[in-house]
Amino acid sequence: MPEMTYRDAIKTTLVEEMDRNPNVILMGEDIGVYQGTFRITEGLLDKYGPRRVVDTPISELGFIGAGIGMAMLGLRPVIEVMTWNFSLPAADQIIQNAAKIRYFSGGQVGVPMVIRGPNGAGVQLSAQHSQSLESFYGHFPGLKVAAPSTPADVKGLLRAAIRGEDPVIFLEHAGLYGHKDDVPENDYVVPFGKARIARAGRDATVIAYSRMLHFALAAAESLARDGIECEVVDLRSLRPIDYETVIASVRRTHRAVVVQEQWRLFGAAGEVAAEIAERCFDDLDAPVTRVTGADVPMPYARSIELMAIPHEQDIAEAVRRALS
Amino acid sequence: MKQVEKPQIDPQVALRWYKDMIYIRTFEEQTERSFRRGKIGGYLHVYTGQEAVVTAFLEASRPDDIMFTGYRDHPHPLLRGSDPGAIMAELYGKVTGVCKGKGGSMHIFDVSRGFYGGYGVIGGHIPLAVGAAYALRYQNTDRVCLCFFGDGAMNSGAFHEPINMAGLWGHDGTCPVVFIIENNLYAMGTSVKRSSAVTNLASRFDQYAIPNEQVDGMDIFAVHGVASRAIDEARRTGRPYAVEALTYRFSGHGAADLFQPYREKTEVESWRQRDPIRMLEGRLRADGHLTDGAIAEIQAAADRMVEEAVKFAEASPEPPAEELYTDIYADA
C-alpha cells in the first residue's frame, strides 16, 4: 500500500474519477489557472481543459446552483468551496434545492453533486474563516455529509460520493492536508454510514471524526501508558451516521466521550451523546460527556485561539473523569 | 419595445395557440374553484392573464428543449403534454400526482417532458437553469434551456450571480439559455416601480453582455416572433438571450390574496381589455377563422379535459404512509 498525503488522496481520486467518467467535472474559485487555494487541483486545468475544470467568479450561490442544474442533467460536478465558510451564501441552493429536489419531484430527478473543501479551524484565520459546519449541513434530510480523517478514507469516501446519486457535503480539514498515511490502491470505496474502529480498547469509547480523530488517538496513546485502554471510533460520515458501531462499542466499554471541534450547542457530539443515552442507559457506568470547541467566535491571537479548540489533554481528562 | 407588424400566420397555428390558451386558463380557473372548496391546500398561484407568454415560448421551442420556472408553474408542463389528471392530482395531494403528491402546486415536475420544476423560492431556480444549459452543450446537443421567472426574481441575489456566469459562459458558446421575464408588474404586492431602480428590466441584461428585448406579453404574435428569434439565437450560438414580456396577472398573487390593496380595480379592468385570449379571438374572428360555434366547441373541449382531470384527482388515493420516507435518497 503506497503512502500518500490527505491532499494527494483527494487529487488522485479526482483524477481517477475524471478519467473513468467524462461527466465528472470540477468547478470552483481559482481551481484552474491559480491551481487551487490549497493546490488540490494543481495541473488539472492543463490535463482536462477549461470545460472540465471550470474557474468561476466569486459567486458561490451562482456556481453551486449551476452545479445542481448540471447534476440534474446528468453531469457529476465536483465543486470546490475555497473553505466551507464561503458556502453560506449558497446555503439556500444547497438546502432548498439540492437536498429536496429528489423528494419534491417525487423521485423524478436527483442531484449527484459533490461539494468539497476545508472545514474547521486553521491557524489564526479568525472568526469568519474557522467555522465547523457539520451539524448545520447534517441537519437536512436529502444531503449526505462526510468528514474523513485519513488519506485512505478520503479516497474511499470521495469515490463513493462521486459515484453516488445524491448531493454530498464533503468536509475536509485544512489541518490534515499534509497528513500522510497508507492508501489502498485500485477501486477502494468506503460506503457512507460505516464507522471505523480506529483503535480497539475496553475501558472507554471515544467517538470523533475529521481532525479530532487524531487528537483522540493521541489521547488514547497517552492514557494507555497509564493502563487505560480507549476504544476510538471514527465516524467518517455524519449523515448517514453509523450508530450501530458506536452503540456496540459503548456496550462493551460502558463509558463514552464524544469529541467535536465545533461549538457545543446543537452540535454533532450532542446528537451522538443523546443516541447513546437513549439506547445504552443501562449499560453506562458514567455520564456521556462531550469535548467541544469553546462557545465563542474564533479569536485571532494564537494564545486564545488555541484555547478555543479541543486538544489531546481535554480528551484524556474527559476519559479520566468518566473512569473516576 | 419593438412594434411588431402583424405577421402572416397560418390560421391553423393561430387556432392551436387559441386552444392552448383556453385550455390553460380553464385549468387555472378550475384550480381556483377547487382551492376555495378546500380541495387544494397550501399556496396556489395561477397564470391567468399571462397565457400568451408561455404559449408562444413553448410553440417556438422544440419538444426536447428543457424548462425551469418558479411557482406559477401549472401551464408549462400542461402545454408540453403532461397529463392534466396527474397535474390536478398533484394539486389535490394525491399519490397519482406527477410528483406523488410530495411537491404540490409550487413543485410541479415532469422530467420526461423536459420540465425540471417548479420552485418555491423566488429566483432560486435561475442558477439551476444556467448549469443545465451548460450541461446541454457539454453533452454536445443543440437543445436549449428556457428559464422563466417574474419581475420580482430580478431583485434577488440569485438572479445576479448566475446571470453574470451565463453572460461569461456565453462568450465561449457554452450557455444556451433563454431567460423569460414574465413581468406582471407586481412582485406579490410590490410594483416594479417600487422595487426596481430601473424599470426597463430587459436593459439590466446589458450589463451582463446578454442580448435582450421587451415585448408586449399580451400579443401572442409579438411574443412568438421574439421567442422564435431568442430560442433560435441561443440554439445557434450557445449564448444566452433575455426577453421581458410585459404582461399582467388577472388573479391575485396567490389564492389568499383577496383584497389586493396594492392595485386599483380600474387597473385590473383596463388590463382585462387586453386579455391575450380575447385579443387573439378577435383577430381570428375578424379574419373569418373563428365562429361563435367554434369558440363554444373549443371551450367545451377544454371544460371536458379539466372535468376529467378533476374526476381523476378526486377519485385518486392519498399517498400511503410508506411514501413518507421514499425519494429522499436514491437508495431510500
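Strands of chain B lie at 66-69, 115-118, 145-150, 177-183, 186-187, 190-191, 212-216, 241-246.
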